Amino acid sequence: MSVRITEIEEPNSEVLRLGLDAPLQLESGASIAPLQIAYQTYGTLNAAKSNAILICHALTGDQHVANEHPVTGKSGWWISMVGPGKPIDTARFFVICSNVIGGCMGSTGPASLRPESGEPYGTEFPVLTIGDMVRAQARLIDHLGIETLLAVVGGSMGGMQVLAWASLFPKRVFAAMPIASAAKHSAQNIAFHEVGRQAVMADPEWRRGRYRIEGTRPVKGLSVARMAAHITYLSEVALQRKFGRNFQDRDAPTFSFDADFQVESYLRHQGISFVERFDANSYLYLTRAMDYFDLAADNGGSLAAAFKGSATRFCLVSFTSDWLFPTSDSRQIVHALNAAGASVSFVEIESDKGHDAFLLEEPNLFATARGFLDAAARARGIAEGKV
Amino acid sequence: MSVRITEIEEPNSEVLRLGLDAPLQLESGASIAPLQIAYQTYGTLNAAKSNAILICHALTGDQHVANEHPVTGKSGWWISMVGPGKPIDTARFFVICSNVIGGCMGSTGPASLRPESGEPYGTEFPVLTIGDMVRAQARLIDHLGIETLLAVVGGSMGGMQVLAWASLFPKRVFAAMPIASAAKHSAQNIAFHEVGRQAVMADPEWRRGRYRIEGTRPVKGLSVARMAAHITYLSEVALQRKFGRNFQDRDAPTFSFDADFQVESYLRHQGISFVERFDANSYLYLTRAMDYFDLAADNGGSLAAAFKGSATRFCLVSFTSDWLFPTSDSRQIVHALNAAGASVSFVEIESDKGHDAFLLEEPNLFATARGFLDAAARARGIAEGKV
């Protein structure tokens, strides 16, 4: 537990600290001050400050895109995509990723200490929106002295942030790449999130969100939440191919409630390892922000209005077997962008790996990202192979 | 709670009691004695005893097919299908439905009292299979003096029992109608069940299954399990149409963890009402039995071998939007039946209501059932409109 708390207060990342004099106004009407934003950067910002790419992470991701993770010791979550010579080429681009506010890797969230009491916020932390996350990131981009990002890129909840960036700050986003995402969270997705939240809140160790104060940890509830969510990240085909009905370390059923099947053992492991690196209240806040996301509703009921007059160039990506954020969700955004007269390309990638595909070795995703970012860089006058 | 216990020990149903001298041998090697089977019947058995239809219920169903439920006070779960003049016509057929063993509505299950100790079995109850449920039902059919059932009909876990009946007792099944079912449980379905079980077992009130002895009730865990499962019973389209992103009794988000969205409120209600009528340990045992179901594995790896030489006439039904037991599962059974040279018809019904469709007003399902049972009755010499 000590490692987790260290990451919350004094993370192994750069931090931007905004004081009481610079509160972040939230859509709910509340505000947060002071505010800490933890972030990683890769590569070098050029003199024109024109080669910055902001990566927005997904629900359970963080700023550790392409470096060893300080808690798990594992590679960054997008190491296949981001690095020197990789599709998001850090030899050429200055890549930034910040932990979202509400998270638990060093940006201010429900586990952070309140300035007034010195106690963790818990559920006294204000409920956030995707737009709030993006406004916090904009503070960081200001701080880095960048006016316009070459690109904003992200998958899933990260894709929602990409869309919110393009809608809220169109002039600051030269190119936008939302992957496996949606302009609004579906009823089914809200339903799965609600199950996860109820699992956390059903755990008596949750203590109405005051577990850090009371010295408990709702690990069982959070683990169940993660298990349920994890199923939705995979496709039926992927589960079948990976596990089928194979037994785990045995030849026959044990006629018990042990993890007889490999898929059970795998899911239990996913649950257990997740709770070592994630804060239960953060899980509540971030799923809630996703549920609330509805870019059309924010724009008088018209998704096209969210992008009216946009000069940003968009590239959308979906995966055929993604049932959490199906292709129809991306297509809806493409239609709205077309109606708004925006520049948009759209690639549906054949994959049987489900929603998770955006995190995996997908050559077509890599080629799409490389081509799109290369074209954006050329359009912005950034020479090939140069910073 | 008193009502539930009454239903377990002295249900509002007919019961067959088998003594210590007639133990039920289980596939695990264990046995159960004494054994109680609670059942309902509708209509009249004819003199030839040729008009009996056995209905097998699904995971959370019970024997109360077409009468008021003694716990909830609601109509039976298949009141639209079963009754005088209905597709399963009780003016013509003698309809039987028994609570599965492992259940909690009067058939012996984990909440039943052990004869030795007078205490509930809890997790000392032996783990069951679908085949075990069917062998128990065969005892009831023996007791009723019926040699060959006109038909065995059921959906979901009920469909698994239909398949097991046809495989284990081919001569006792004149016609078989498995609806929205599968010959084996998929990796994804095992995964969802495992999440449900972990939710129950994570609840400290579960007390390692000894909650009835210790006077607690794992209602939160069971409620979360039900919520997760319930999502899988519906289609994305049905959720979208029914709830979309509509708010519940409000016009705007509350920026809280209240059930802002109708779909959240609906799911919470599903969870809360379920725990009033279902035993948590029964939920563990019945989901486990479904996970273990693999009729091909039971027959040397060949599903066709399960039906070799069968004279039973089969009618399979699937629904287009059912993603829990998709059409491909039914098609696999049809292929095996064809390979076994069995008589089989197969109807895929266009419906956007998901797995739940088999419980709902689906005119095509009603027409299919009526037509199939009518043809079976005629083939067995049961005159139209006569008992």
What does this structure look like?
Two copies of one chain form a homodimer. Chain A folds into two domains: 2-185 and 292-379, Alpha/Beta hydrolase fold, catalytic domain (Rossmann fold), CATH 3.40.50.1820; 190-286, Rna Polymerase Sigma Factor, Chain: A, CATH 1.10.1740. Helix content of chain A is 34%, strand content 15%. In chain A, the strands form three sheets. An eight-stranded mixed beta sheet of chain A has the order 1-4-8-5-9-10-11-12, with helices on both faces. A two-stranded antiparallel sheet of chain A has the order 2-3. With 387 residues, chain A is α/β, with parallel strands linked by helices. Chain A is built from eleven helices and twelve strands. The mean pLDDT of chain A is 96. Chain A starts with a helix and ends in an 8-residue tail after the last helix. Chain A is globular and about 65 Å long. The first copy, chain A, has helices at 2-9, 130-143, 157-168, 187-202, 211-214, 219-233, 236-242, 262-275, 280-292, 327-339, 363-379, and strands at 14-18, 24-25, 31-32, 35-42, 52-56, 82-83, 88-89, 94-98, 149-155, 173-179, 313-319, 343-349. At the A-B interface, helix 4, helix 6, helix 7, helix 8 and helix 9 of A face helix 4, helix 6, helix 7, helix 8 and helix 9 of B.
